[in-house]
Amino acid sequence: MKIAMVMTAGESAAMGHWLATASLADAELERWIIDGEAEVAQQLLEALVARWRQTPVDMLIFPAGTLGDELATRLAWRLQGGSVCQVLAVNTPEGRVTKPHWGNALIATLKVAARPLCLSLARQPGVHTSIDLPVEMTTRHIAPAALPDWLISVESVEPTGAHPLLEAKHVLVVGQGGEGVDADHIAALAHGLGAEAGYSRARVMNGGYDAERLIGISGHLLAPDVCIVAGASGAAALMAGVRDSRFIVAVNRDASAPVFTQADVGIVDDWPAVLEALTACADT
Fold first, then answer.
1. Any idea where the Electron transfer flavoprotein alpha/beta-subunit N-terminal domain is (predicted)?
2. Domain 2-142 bears CATH identifier 3.40.1180.10
C-alpha cells in the first residue's frame, strides 16, 4: 500500500510523532509538502488532484485541524474515494481505522475499502519531544494555486504563542467538587506545586474561571509528566484531556469515583486539604 502524508513543513514533527506510534505494516510512505500558505482549501484541492493523478497512492493522511478535515472530505469526493476525519489509528493489513465517538466516550473501529482513502488525524495532546519523519521518504511538493475569483477578501488573524498548559510538565486539573475554593486559591495551590492550573467544563461553566484553561475533549489535550486531578469524577470528556499523562494522581472524597480507575495513585479525601498539605511539603 502506498500512503502520502500531506503536510506543511512546520507539521513534520507532529506527523512524525503520530507515525512513530502508528502501525502501517509494510506501507510505502511518501511526504507531500505544501509549499507556502493557503488561505482556503480551494487553493490546494486542484493541485492535490493533479499530484494524485501523476503519482497515485492508496491513502492520503492529513494533519489534525479544520483544514485537514476539509481537505480529506473534499478531496475524497473529487477522487471518488472515501474519507474519515479525526482518526486515531490505522490498521492497513485489515483496512480498519479507529476514531473517537460520542464525545470521546467511545472508540469506533471502521472497516473502509474505498480507494483512495483520505484521512485527517484526531487532535492529539502536546508532546515535549519531536520525532522527525524518516529521511528516506520520497518527498513531493504541492504549490497552492492563486485565490479563487469568488473570494472577495481574507482577514488574517495573527497566531498567538502556545498556551502555558500545553508546555507544562506538571498540571493541576480541578473539577466541580470543592465549590468554596475560588480561582485565586486554585492558582496559588498550583503555583505552590510548580504546576499550571486547568479546569473541567463543569467548573468553567459555573463562571469565574478562565475558559482558556478548559481541559478535555472540547479544550486542551495534555501529556504532562505529572497530572493531579482534584475534585473531578473522571468523566470521559475530561479524562480525554489528560489520559496521556505519564503519571496521574486523583484526589476525590468519593471512593467510588471513576477517576480512580484511571489514576496511578488515588487519595480519598477532600482535595483542598490534600493539596494544602502537598504545597506545605513542597515548601519544606
1. 39-121
2. no
